[in-house]
Amino acid sequence: MIVEDDPDTREMLERFLQLEGFEVRTAANGQLALQSLQSDSSPRVILLDLMMPVMNGWQFRQAQVRDPSLSRIPVVVVTAAGVREDIPAIEADGWLSKPVDFDRLLATITPFCA
Fold this sequence. Notes:
This protein is an alpha/beta fold. It has a single domain, classed as 3-Layer(aba) Sandwich (Rossmann fold). The chain is built from four helices and five strands, in the order βαβαβαββα. It is globular. The model has no long low-confidence stretch (mean pLDDT 92).
């Protein structure tokens, strides 16, 4: 699942992952992602932007870890924020900088999708 507010970035990541054989769902913010996760099967991994309207990445992650049915889904932060002290506090399973290096993206998410 890709949780990203920028439509161009979201579409680019979605198309790349589909071309690599992944089944992809997307959400434009954390609130929509939570709604999707509660009504559909759980993804193998979530690619999570941090800075989004409505519900940002930190708020999404707080809600996710409080929900036992969602808390075990791995999260990889994808951000343009660079290295920041508050990113480790989100307790993500990985993080990638924007613009995304596609080889690094595949290397990061493939272990979760095996």
